[in-house]
Structures
1.
Amino acid sequence: MTDNSIPSLNISVLHGPNLNLLGQREPGIYGVLTLAAINAQLMADGAELGVNLTCFQSNHEGELVDQIQGGLNTVDGFVINAGAYTHTSVAIRDAIAAVQIPTVEVHLSNIYRREEFRHHSYIAPVVIGQISGFGAMSYRLGLKAIVAHLRG
Ligand code: DQA
């Protein structure tokens, strides 16, 4: 029996710069799936998990900050791949810290096996956890992780 009194979770997946080019962008590193294919898989996973899912991509730091702030009172959890902003953006980190909405950080590639400048994440200290190196599966694992975290 379904308990309709329990509202389903609202999960927002945020993709940062250059992830709109997935499929054609350095496929040896990021894989051959397009962002649309990844989002479609996540929507299917979200339906199976019984959560409401939205996906958003931007190449602009401020737009990602706006999405995070806009989650106040509407979003229960974020899954974020901030792309290169991971390694540069105090603003995205501060936005996550400000809204206090549980967040899982994901990366397609294993950022610790790559160039030194990718080893540091400004976001890592303000998120629940990080999943890095499993290709598109990183997003799917990130979604499962945030839902498991929110459901306690
Ligand atoms: C990335 C890793 C970042 O270093 C890079 O700038 C990206 C993608 C990943 O998903 O592996 O754009 O976040």
2.
Amino acid sequence: MKYIVNGGNKLFGKLEVDSAKNAILPIIAATIMCDDECVIEDIPLYLDVIEMCAIMEKLGKNITISNGNLVISGTLSSTSVIMAETKTLRSSIFMMGSILSKYRKAIFTHPGGCDIGKRPIDIHLDGLEKLGLKYSIANDLIYCDASKVCGSVIELSYPSVGATENIMMASTLIEGEMTVIKNCAREPEIVELARFINSMGGKVFGAGYETIVVYGVKSLHGTKFKCIADRIACGTYLIAGAMCGGRIEMDNVDPNFLLPLIVFLRNSGCNIDLFSDKIILENFSRLKSIEKIETETYPGFPTDLQSPMLVMQTVSKGISIIHETVFEARFKVVNELIKMGAKVNVSERYATVVGVSKLKPAKVKCPDLRGGAGLVLAGLVAKGKSEIDEIFHVERGYYNLETNLKSLGANIEKVE
Ligand code: UD1
């Protein structure tokens, strides 16, 4: 599948932002800790969510979609997560914490995911080992035995999102034991996972801060839950509005989760109005470059918005230096952007972008999820017909992207 984009239209209108992919994925994994029915409301069918559900079904969970809600129940029939899907879906790693929490023994394939860096899982394994996990690795498989786990104090060497979530889940069912996790990631999606676990009867405190405390409980019960909006999708649409010009409103979002982006957009020349649950962006002028952009862990500027932001710099007036501190291989989109006339030079973790007055349409290929979204933004401003191929990357984390952009006035079609 590919997108055909005829660039040059301004964007006007409003969008309701869907639930966050990065909240939904660990929450789906967390349902493994509970046999009762768990309902996750208003679920957008990101490809990653569909793949995660497929893995869960193969492991024995019952999964249905009913009235737009994801309904999950049942007990696992297998704790061997060694399917082909786990190679492409890194989030399958979240099942490690939840399976070990409830079933104590498991085998995992070393997970894959977006090709944006080495993505090791040493921080996950070190933390789980401190809880008493014994594991061995052979032929790319990780054999885990958590039969002797107990509460512990764990200091993460880096605030990894996935490791924080895995250790939270792994300690949730260590009955009567307290686990303290220090140097945690503080992303809003971690707060969502904690809220979800607690809605099932778990006891997780401090999510969103540097230290999380988990009091282990005996079992969890069913729940009904709705996740926060996807701040990265929302940020991508805001950047689209800034680049194309026009006036767009993003509904159902908490602007607090996007403050670094909002500061950059305002410094670029956009007018932005913030409300408790919506953001309105207006721009009718050429954007100004942001001199220095550095990705950081939350609450800093998110690495997941780095590619869309880099694309915005390609058409802004001035020079921008972008420093990617989180993932080492997140500039793959640059080669494609150069085909569209962008002036970007990459040296290790730095990209220097010299803004040009316009991009030209081209045939390009999505290199990864966020880079692919960046190419769509480039297509929206390049006057004429661009073809953006390999959009399965984009659909892993954007739901109805073309429909949403069309509703704002963009000329974009998805074709075979
Ligand atoms: C999550 C998000 C992803 C986002 C990232 C950073 C989900 C499903 N994905 O990914 O969209 O880009 O957070 O905000 O929520 N690292 C190690 N060893 C480990 C774990 C991580 O070296 O054991 C490194 C990674 O290679 C990477 C950095 O730490 O360079 C950040 O990774 P991490 O925070 O774990 O990101 P993910 O949970 O994979």
